Amino acid sequence: MTAAFEHKRQKTIHKWAAWSLVQASFQDPAGLEFTRTFVKSPGAVGVVALLGEPGQRDVLLVRQYRPPFQKYTLEIPAGMRDREGEDPMITARRELEEEAGFGAKTLVALGNHESAPGISDSVAQLFLAVDLFATKIDRHGPEERFMTIERIKFGDALEMTRTGEISDGKTIIGLLLVAQFFDAYL
């Protein structure tokens, strides 16, 4: 059994958009108090969207400019859980439609990914979408307005995670979860 840490108190230092920077005090198992500062987040969703017939699946990816890295990244459609109380599956459906212009008849929960546990409480909930149908795109912000949608063979996308062409954590985890545990959909 692991010794327990105790959360003592917390204060918000700064709020912006859907995030907050907080400072929290904890007590370690030896009784010593320490402070950590981290980002509170409503979390996010990511969708591994498969197109085509089983045995010949493509994955739908978006190429989006990411200011912190000053480059474009190739990712699964994703977005913040910025509507309080919204079911993550509804958020996933909304983000798939807004970013990529597709709806899904079948949406399966893949699991969760703690994005950066040393600096944030953000959790990305990942989904698999199949039986896609075209809808409208409703993008928000300059990064989304200039994103491109790419349809890549699933096996090629897996290889791109190995070579580093796909480096986004939620995308790598989502693709690997589908390949390992949900191959019946491939």
Topology:
Blueprint: E1 6-16, E2 19-27, E3 33-40, E4 44-51, E5 58-66, E6 71-75, E7 78-80, H1 88-100, E8 102-114, E9 123-134, H2 141-145, E10 148-153, H3 154-163, H4 169-181
Parallel strand pairs: 4-9
Antiparallel strand pairs: 1-2, 2-3, 4-5, 4-7, 5-6, 5-10, 8-9
Helix pairs in contact: 3-4
Summarize the model shown.
This protein is an alpha+beta fold. It contains four helices and ten strands, in the order E-E-E-E-E-E-E-H-E-E-H-E-H-H. Helix content is about 20%, strand content about 45%.
How would you explain this protein's 3D organization?
By secondary structure, the chain is of the alpha+beta class. It has 2 domains: 6-40, no CATH class; 44-185, Nucleoside Triphosphate Pyrophosphohydrolase. It has 4 helices and 10 strands. It has helices at 88-100, 141-145, 154-163, 169-181, and strands spanning 6-16, 19-27, 33-40, 44-51, 58-66, 71-75, 78-80, 102-114, 123-134, 148-153. Strands 4, 5, 6, 7, 8, 9 and 10 form a 7-stranded mixed beta sheet that branches. A hairpin with a 6-residue loop joins strand 4 and strand 5. Helix 3 (154-163) packs across helix 4 (169-181). It is globular. 25% of the residues are buried. The model has no long low-confidence stretch (mean pLDDT 94).
